[in-house]
Structures are given as C-alpha cells and as structure tokens.
Specification:
It is a single chain. The chain is mainly beta. The protein has one domain. Helix content is 4%, strand content 20%. A five-stranded antiparallel sheet has the order 1-7-14-10-9, with no helix packed on it. The protein has a five-stranded antiparallel sheet with strand order 2-3-4-16-8, with no helix packed on it. Strands 6-5-15 form a three-stranded antiparallel sheet, with no helix packed on it. Strand 5 and strand 6 form a beta hairpin. The two termini are 32 Å apart.
Length: 347
C-alpha cells in the first residue's frame, strides 16, 4: 500500500490554497442495531452501527428524508442525510470479553467546528482536494430517497480500494493498510470509506445496495476516479467518511506479537468486511448549489448554512432497540446473550 502521512493539523495547509468540495464534522446521533439500507424494517438489525446525521433515522426510511427531519448532528444545517458504519470493538485476549471502542470527537476543522461529540468527518468532493474540474466534469447531486453502501461484512479477502485503516502515531496517520494495524497506535486507529462516484441515473437503490452505482475508485486517497461507464454515466459527488477510533484506552490489555489483534467490527467478521451506509437527505437544492461552486472547500463558499456543534449535539433519536451496549459483555450485540454484560474495568 502507498504511504500517506499527513499530520492531524493537515487542514491548516489546505487553507493556504484553493480546495474543492465539502468537508465537515457530524457528531454521533445514536448507536443501535438499526440498518434501514441493508435491513429495512429489521428491529433490531444484525449488528451494531454508529449513526450520524438527521433525526428522521429509524428502522425503515423511504422517500424524502429531509422533509421529515427536524435537526441534524452535522455542522451543515441543511444536511439531514444519515451516515453509518459498523462499530469497532476490543476483544480481550485474556478472557474473550468485548467492549466498544468509542469514536474520538472529530478534530476541529475550519469555521468554528470545534465541539463535536464522537462522530465522523464527511467529504463530498467534486474532483479531488485541489481542483474541481467542473468545466469537464458536471456533478449531479443525489435525489430524495437515494441510498447506497460500500463494502460488505461478508468480505473475507481484500476489500475494494478506498476502504482503509491507518495507525495514528505521534500525530501522523501513517501508512494506508487493508487490515487492522498490528501494533499499539498511540493516537488511535483511523478508518476511511470512499463510496462509488458513478450512478445509473435511474435507481434510488438496488437489491445489493451497490449495483445502481459503479465503483471506479482505484486509489486510497482523494484522487479523481476514472471516467464513469455508459451503464452508470452520472457523476455524483464522491462521498467519503473518516473516523478516529479511541483504541489507546485498551493499550494495557494486550501485547502485540503475543496476543492476536484484539480489534474487530461489531459483526465479528474480518477486517476486509469494513463497510458503510449512506442515505441522502439534503434540504432542497443545497448540495447541488455547493457542487456547482468552483474551488469550494469545507463551507460551500457560503452557499450552505452552518450551525455550531454545540447545537448539533442536541439532536437525538429515541432508543428503538432498547439494548444494553455499555461495559463489558461475553457477546457482541446480536451474537449471543449480549444482555448479560460483565462488571469490572471501565474503558
């Protein structure tokens, strides 16, 4: 894999030159076994997800999400979309018990975005992080009701390009990896999910939640993907999620080289099974306005309203599943008697 070692203060360098696309934080909305894209109506779904975005989120979601949501955990206050990923877990190599690894608060970006509660960083890029190329490549925003996924929990080989891990050490993210880092990352584990950028222009979804898209992503960075094929000719924004997982809290509980890697996903598959889900929910033409702006990085060149993260953090949804996911447990949620729990060390 190629190396990519930006510091966590990389954005300061971005600010000195023109940049293209949107980049903003979203706080955690809820953590539950819900998956309205892959398992609509399932209450609960098969495994645990960390979800951000609008408060219309529930087990079944159809149509215009933005018309039903009243708040969002995202800094872009017109974005009522939902974004979710499988939750990371630590499995104690000594007794086999499980504990959630929490997402670290999104690092402050530009424009007063400090104060996120957990969550993830969202990107919508037009071309790459240095130019928009809008004269040669028109970007069409997603329509209401659109959804897609990337990756699959059943993957056991090597995942598609654009799904990666990094070991944060000394403020640097380090080499891009296709699996969990093997050592103790004193800054945590960084995961990235790049979605497919080509749409068939017709289907809001497909049976596997991916066939209506065509994944031309061939690299791990924010490079422009190759041209879209005739079967999927519509270039949409390249959506990406980034999450920092707070793995250092478990550093004293395992020994690299002696113990098996203790980090895994909530579906207890392999690292190649990392995946993410997206459900479009921008209000009106807000996203299209941003994608039509040349060289707009982070704030949509003023075309999108922003809110303080202290306000975003007030947005919540109810606990639909009513499942205890706190503390230590003998089982992952959905994979045994996950309600049993265990007392002991708090991470």
């Amino acid at each position: 894999m190629k190396s990519f070692t930006p510091s966590l203060g990389l954005l300061a360098a971005f600010a000195t030159s023109a940049q293209a696309g949107l980049r903003f934080p979203c706080s955690s909305l809820t953590t539950q076994r819900l998956d309205p894209a892959a398992q609509p109506g399932a209450l609960p779904s098969a495994h645990l997800h960390m979800i951000v975005g609008g408060n219309a989120f529930n087990a079944t979601m159809e149509g215009d999400v933005a018309s039903r949501a009243t708040c969002t955990t995202c800094q872009m206050s017109e974005d009522f979309s939902n974004y979710w990923v499988a939750h990371m877990y630590f499995k104690d190599p000594k007794n086999g018990t499980y504990h959630r690894v929490m997402p670290k608060p999104v690092q402050p970006l530009l424009g007063g975005s400090q104060g996120a509660s957990g969550g993830l960083t969202i990107y919508y890029t037009q071309f790459d992080l240095s130019k928009d190329n809008l004269k040669q490549q028109t970007i069409k925003a997603f329509p209401p009701g659109f959804r897609m996924t990337v990756g699959s929990p059943t993957t056991t080989g090597k995942q598609h390009a654009g799904l990666s891990y990094q070991c944060i050490t000394g403020g640097n993210r380090g080499t891009l990896l296709s699996t969990f880092p093997t050592g103790k990352c004193n800054g945590g584990i960084f995961t990235t999910h790049h979605f497919a950028p080509c749409w068939d222009g017709k289907s809001l979804d497909s049976p596997d939640h991916q066939s209506h898209m065509y994944n031309t992503v061939r690299s791990e960075g924010f490079d422009n993907a190759p041209a879209c094929p005739s079967s999927h000719p519509v270039r949409v924004p390249q959506v990406t999620f980034e999450i920092e997982w707070d793995t250092p809290k478990f550093a004293d509980l395992w020994t690299p080289g002696k113990d098996a890697n203790p980090f895994q996903w909530s579906f207890e598959g392999t690292a190649a099974g990392t995946h993410a889900d997206y459900m479009f929910g921008w209000k009106g033409d807000a996203l299209q306005r941003a994608m039509d702006k040349p060289e707009c990085f982070y704030d949509g060149c003023g075309s999108i309203k922003k809110q303080a993260m202290s306000e975003a953090n007030k947005c919540t949804v109810k606990d639909f599943v009513r499942e205890n996911i706190e503390g230590w447990s003998k089982f992952l949620p959905g994979q045994g008697d996950s309600m049993a729990g265990m007392t002991g060390m708090k991470a």
